[in-house]
Protein 1
Amino acid sequence: MARETTFDLQGRTCLVTGSTDGHGKAVALALAARGADVVLHARSREKALAVRDEVARAAGGKAPEILLADLARAEEIDAAVATYLESGRPLHVLVNNAGLVGLSRRVNDAGLELTFAVNYLAMFRLTLGLLPRLQASGPARIVNISSDTYRIAKLDLDDLQLERDYNMMKAYGQSKLAIVYFTLELARRLADAAGASVGRARTPADAPSGETAGRIASRPGGDAFDLRSAVDGAARWVTVNAVDPGPVASNIGADNPGLAYRLVGPLIRGFFPSAARAARTAVRVATDPALERSTGGYWRSNKRREKPLDFDPALSRALWEKSLELAGIGEPRLG
Ligand SMILES: NC(=O)c1ccc[n+]([C@@H]2O[C@H](COP(=O)([O-])OP(=O)(O)OC[C@H]3O[C@@H](n4cnc5c(N)ncnc54)[C@H](OP(=O)(O)O)[C@@H]3O)[C@@H](O)[C@H]2O)c1
């Protein structure tokens, strides 16, 4: 079980998505209690205002900022990114927490399956939009909330929208697997960019020996992704890690109509660990000074899983490119 952390976050700005409830709210409260300047992301102003008072109390009076966006809508994500960038505020920690489960298949305005759109593609779009600010504020951290359900999932790039065969676990697991791939791919790309900026070879093609090249290519969650060697001498860097909070007593799924959620909801809230307890791993990964250069990891119960999956570099690149295409955005400049 993750231990309680007490790191001082004075002067650090942390944005938490989906901070109106459950795990995200618990993360926001914990970061505020440690002195961070917290920005609460929400889709509902009313809910955000209620949580703002709670977070301000945890922070000893300092009220957090609010950033509004329905993550199912690309234009609202872009508007939130623009608002954030225009504010001039630094960004030291981005916790991509917002998520949902859908008992039946729903789509957003663009026709994308909602679990994929909100849990994964919104994270992809928001993160790439805010990356310049994270890099300018570095050292900075991105913490992507995934779930161990990724282990039973598959990524079928020809049916990411699950038009052929939808079920809740398939959709949820796929979105969480996409998050793991995104985390490892972005970590690799950021490590490459940081290494290049200090004149170090980081890609398999550039690597000085076959062994190093092999490690970089085949162990995206392992030592090769510890930025220590890549960023020695680099002034700023951004790490990216995935976290599974484990089961959380939350309202996840509450927006699903029908009997099934009415039966399952009370069990989730009654028997799963509290959100405050579940949030400890994400809070540690977001704040522990010992993890400042640790990247490309998957964390659960306060432990880093060195090899979260049998990483398929071709699939990872293909998902990245497909995500850019679906999001309608160009290749970001990371260096
Ligand atoms: N609960 C679990 O057992 C469990 C286990 C492993 C991982 N997780 C992950 O932990 C994260 C948090 O889940 P939770 O259990 O805390 O669920 P939750 O209580 O339902 O909280 C989800 C948060 O995401 C927000 N959200 C949902 N759809 C959104 C949208 N379209 N636009 C903007 N915000 C949206 C919600 O906003 P509203 O308040 O407006 O609905 C809420 O703030 C998720 O990524 C989930 O997959 C949960």
Note: The beta strands are 13-16, 37-42, 65-68, 93-96, 140-145, 238-244, 298-300, 303-305.
Protein 2
Amino acid sequence: MNTIAEPASRVSSADKARREAIKLEKRLCREVARAITDFNMIEDGDKVMVCMSGGKDSYTLLDILRKLQKRAPIRFEIVAVNLDQKQPGFPDHILPDYLRAQGVDFHIETQDTYSIVKRVIPEGKTTCGLCSRLRRAILYSVADRLGCTKIALGHHRDDILQTLLLNMFFGGRMKGMPPKLVSDDGKHVVIRPLAYIPEKDTRQWAEYQQFPIIPCNLCGSQDNLQRQIVGDMLREWDKKYPGRLESMFRAMGNIVTTHMMDPQLHDFKGARATGVAEPGGDMAFDPDSFPEKFVPAASGDTLGITIQLQTDLARSACG
Ligand code: SF4
């Protein structure tokens, strides 16, 4: 009995995994396409530079963009770019081998920023600030040289939520990570096509596709502690309170400026009774109502460890 039943169960679990992967692929394509459309990220004739770190998110980004490229009603080019910063032990064959096998147009930029950072930053001090500034400048210059009109980064929904919370917890401001922005030098448009994708989906897709992941701790810098703590907190919320992260994320695109406290966004001092009913006006005395099942965070969901916020934000650029 067992010998017959075992292969059958193996077959059915393989089928199940395949069905799940098909569903995931559809979801990834749909949500990336939705983000691209919502923010007008890619236009006809664009040349998109996809920044590849060798992590699960950048592989997923490249893979899904290539799938969309084949069926998009517009024409755009893709070039994958990796910056080899000469970190000790960086396996510099992995990405070229993969990209060549996939038939992807690619460029590897080799610049030893690792030595510069080690030389300039005293031992024991955080290296991320300088490292990410150097990386940014190099990637912009590569985009210029390759004639790229858009620079695509692999940040996903959870990176965006983490950044919002880190800024709130430690920076005293409500600032996330935009899906599309003009670079600080004013010359480049940076896009985040995975903005609507939860991290668990990129993880699952990377596992299913067996992307050759390059470890992300090669620089030897200490782990990004505060970002990790916030990431763990979000994952715990996601398990305990399904829908909370989706709701938080939706909130980032649904800001009621009259009900915040930023005088730059709303003229509170100038607020006067007009005598005219406003459909969007506040009832003032009535509390907002929320669904019963939305339970507030447990008191244990606190963050008590301090580390420089600058470090966390700078290191987020690694993904
Ligand atoms: S963690 Fe990232 S940003 Fe920080 S030093 Fe290492 S490679 Fe650079």
Note: Confidence is low (pLDDT under 50) at residues 296-319.
